[in-house]
Amino acid sequence: MSASVAQVLVEQRTHFVRRWTRTSIIGSSSFLVVAALLAVLPFMVNLSLVYSMIDLFILVILAMTWNMLAGYGGMVSVGQQAYIGIGAYSMVVLADSLGLNIFAAIALSAVVCGVIAIPISFLVFRLVGGYFAVGTWVVAEVVRLLVVQFPQIGGGAGISFSAMSDLSRDWRIATSYWIGLGATVIVVAACVLLIRSRAGLALTAVRDDMTAASTSGVMVTAVKRLVFVFAGAGAGIAGALIAVSTMRVQPDSVFSVQWSAFMIFIVVVGGVGTLEGPIIGVLVFWFLKQLLADYGPLYLILLGVIGIVFVLFVRGGIWGLISRKGRIELFPVGYNFSKKL
Amino acid sequence: MSSAPLLETQNLGRKFGQLQVLSDFDLRVEAGEVLGIIGPNGAGKSTLLSVIGGSVGASTGRILLDNEDITRTSASWRARHGIATSYQIPRPFLEMTVLENLLVASTFAANARGKKAEDLAIGAMKSVGLEGYANNPASSLRLLDRKRLEVARALAANPRILLLDEIAGGLTESEVPELVDLIRHVSASGVTVIWIEHVVHALTAVATRLICLTYGRILAEGEPQAVLNSPEVRSVYLGLDPDGENEAESFVKNRPSEVQKEPNTHA
Ligand SMILES: Nc1ncnc2c1ncn2[C@@H]1O[C@H](COP(=O)(O)OP(=O)(O)O)[C@@H](O)[C@H]1O
Ligand SMILES: [Mg+2]
Fold first, then answer.
1. Does the C-beta of B45 come closer than 6 Å to ligand 1?
2. At residue B244, does pLDDT exceed 60?
């Protein structure tokens, strides 16, 4: 049989490859510790803060999954609100109309969104760059226009979510919070595991250079479709959480393009194409929101200005500034070459 | 019975707008060959490799691998079926480390998993002497190291056909023989090599056949020394008097840096 380069390149095995580093051990365990501390928060602080934290969870889910799509996959979508809306309505139908258990309903809402993302991907993948962005937005608008045609789910006025309405207000808020926290931990873990996997290696290569990735054997379109479906499912979970926490699904709100604006802001400020960036971006966004909530439009203008400054002058976002001097990983997704002892 | 060549192009052509960069290009590459390609800047050498590698489509003609038409297949498919491309202007995955860059090729092009993928990547990394930079992001590499990474990434793909594009330029006098040695080793392991190079003495040290390209066509082809001594090549590429005796050889051997810096251009 013919020999191959593989045999010429015999590795003497004086080295090995590690996935975990000191920083990723610290980072990942801190993440779990923070999640555990957050779980007891409803017993410690007042409920209005707990309630506003649900927003933060929703934003983490949206930003993490949008970053997979845009930051890694290079697909700058401004239409993820399509799945937020579909997820929210699925939640109402599954939990209220069909009487499914809340957790099962959330999981199924994600599945519904992921499945719907498949045919949509075949449509929008024909477009690139700015056309892709506009195309996804158009799809979201079309979905909204379709949904409001159905009086069974409230038409243009929206529909209320009542599966949790027999709980007392306090318990309802606390329960929504825990559901939101659990979903967030799961989605962040899913993002980390995806990037850590074989598909994640392909996706990271696609992030850096799509053409070189394909000449290195990566099936670029397949990887992009996988991420498109993944991000659709993630946005669906966020939509389901909106239904749970606000107890109401309004088409103009769940299908609002403002969600996309927020995701873009968060990821750009935190750091595009990294797992750490979106989490940092959400914290910045959420604090700004708490600080400036009373200023109305001024707050949105300020967000816009900050976003533009980052796009122009701080390309890597805040995480880029932090990790500028060499790579720091808070999650074990890289490959580290080390000497055998 | 004559068996089909490993790689064949028939009537291959590529246009960029009005510019016909490759035309009626017929090439047969036998398994185990080290095919050297020389030619002035802008001759279409890199375009030829890109069309074979699949990152640039063919405007006309066919490409056959093992007598099978692969003209319509993607670059990714070709990488997974043994054709490893490297770019003249390196295109590393900038934010990934050197090792990770190579793991992409060994994992997807060579379809290796786990330890196998790691061994292939590490082996490729050591073969070009980049192990000292294993954990550094590719963006921190200088041009010469990026070229090494480009070669290593093609090797990590465990290819049947290795496409190389001007990898010796800028190397020092002691580094060129090391590179030549590496290619000789790779070739001896059964890999077919197509190598574009301006550093002609590096090429002639391993090439079994040489092609000189101009204006997207073959100007001369054959045994390396014969090609270098042919009057057409002497005047078009080396810029020598076509009738001079054996000058080409000494020119190539003794003044490689000039050959490398100032090949004639069409422009
Ligand atoms: N993507 C492209 N678009 C337009 N023109 C191109 C492209 N790639 C190469 N060319 C042109 O094709 C010609 C041949 O280029 P190339 O194949 O790079 O030559 P070589 O590698 O022999 O120097 C040049 O005139 C170059 O400008
Ligand atoms: Mg070239």
1. yes
2. no
Its pTM stands at 0.91
Whether A158 maps to a domain, the answer reads: yes
Out of B16, B45, B166, B212, mutate this one to test ligand 1's pocket (max ligand atoms within 8 Å of CB): namely: B16
User: Which residue in A75, A72, A45 sits closest to A177, CA to CA?
Assistant: A45
Predicted pLDDT at B235: 82
Residue A229 within any structural domain of the chain: yes
Instruction: Answer yes or no: do B131 and B195 share one domain.
Output: no
For residue B112, give its domain range: 85-159
pLDDT tens digits, A82-137: 999 999 999 999 999 999 999 999 999 999 999 999 999 999 999 998 999 999 99
For the cut 90, the answer to whether the pLDDT of residue A290 exceeds it is: no
CA–CA distance, A102 with A106 (Å, rounded to integer) = 6
Residues with Cβ within 8 Å of A57's Cβ and at least 6 positions away in sequence, in order, are: A177, A180, A181, A183, A184, A241
* Residue B263: pLDDT over 90: no
> What integer pLDDT is reported at residue B5 of this predicted model?
93
Look at residues B52, B46, B55 and name the one whose alpha carbon lies nearest to residue B21.
Answer: B46
Structure tokens at A235: 């946005």
Same domain? B263 vs B170: yes
Structurally, chain B folds into a number of domains equal to 2
What is the reported pLDDT for B241?
Answer: 62
Is there a single domain that holds both residue B144 and residue B130? Answer: yes
Mutate which of B15, B47, B56, B211 for ligand 1 pocket (most atoms within 8 A of beta carbon) = B47
Q: What is the ipTM of this complex?
A: 0.92
Domain that holds residue A195: 21-257
CATH number at residue B213: 3.40.50.300
Buried residues in A313-333 as b, exposed as e (16+ CB within 10 A): eeebbbbbeebeeebebbbbb
Rg of the Cα trace of chain A?
21
Matching residue, tokens 């692969």? B70
Q: For position B264, what pLDDT does the model report?
A: 45
